[in-house]
Every structure is written in C-alpha cells, then in structure tokens.
Design brief:
Blueprint (H helix, E strand, L loop, with lengths): L2 H19 L3 E9 L2 E9 L2 E10 L13 H17 L5 E11 L5 E10 L6
Parallel strand pairs: 3-4
Antiparallel strand pairs: 1-2, 2-3, 4-5
C-alpha cells in the first residue's frame, strides 16, 4: 500500500479516537453505498453526524479541507440519504470534516470543523 494510503488509514483512526474522546458515539466507519462511502457515521446530542476525514502528510499542495469539492459533497449527501433510509432514521443531520495533518516536526494536528457544509438543494 502507498505511504499516503497508510497515513489516510492512520488519519481515520486518529479521527475516531478524537471523536470518542469528545463523547461521540461511532455507529459505522467506511460505510459503503454503491460507489459512495461515509468515512465515519456517529451520533452526539441527538444528531446524526457524518464525518469526512481528510489526512495529509504535509500541507505542501493543499489544505485537507480544500479537497471537499461540490461533487464530493453530493456523493456524501447521497450516501447519507441511503444510510438514513436503510436504518430508518429520523434525526437531524450535521456534516463535519476532520482534517488530520502530520506537521514537519512529526506532530499530528487535528482540526474538527462542525457544520462544514450543508446538503445542496435538489434542482
């Protein structure tokens, strides 16, 4: 496996640890619906929280949160709709992003962006 994939997996595990430490209940990780995937599905305070994890081993090319494109948002929202239907949920949904960055000194920085984006209006 490529090193960036290794750090991506490590980043997802660090994000899960972070969420648990902050009293989130993780329901699923890497939940797949068709070609779409939800990195982390969790609950907190009666909210269904969908967390997209972006990991980078450096910030040389782009900030992790900048990798969340409109097309990516649409795929996340579609997978979320599938998840809600499959599990027959009736909860308010929040979309978060967790950025995990390995700094030049080897330390790890975690940034949690709550309400990072909204589901786009259907046209």
């Amino acid at each position: 496996m490529a090193k960036h994939n290794d750090f991506g997996k490590e980043g997802e595990l660090l994000a899960q640890d972070y969420l648990r430490a902050n009293k989130y209940n993780i329901l699923h990780t890497n939940w797949i619906s068709g070609k779409n995937e939800l990195d982390i599905v969790a609950t907190k305070d009666n909210l269904l929280v969908i967390v997209e994890v972006k990991s980078r081993s450096s910030l040389r090319f782009e900030q992790p949160k900048d990798a969340i494109t409109n097309a990516k948002i649409k795929r996340i929202v579609q997978a979320t709709n599938d998840y809600i239907q499959q599990f027959e949920l009736d909860q308010e949904v929040r979309f978060d992003v967790i950025c995990v960055v390995k700094k030049s000194d080897g330390d790890i920085a975690i940034e949690h962006i709550e309400d990072a984006f909204l589901a786009p209006n259907e046209e």
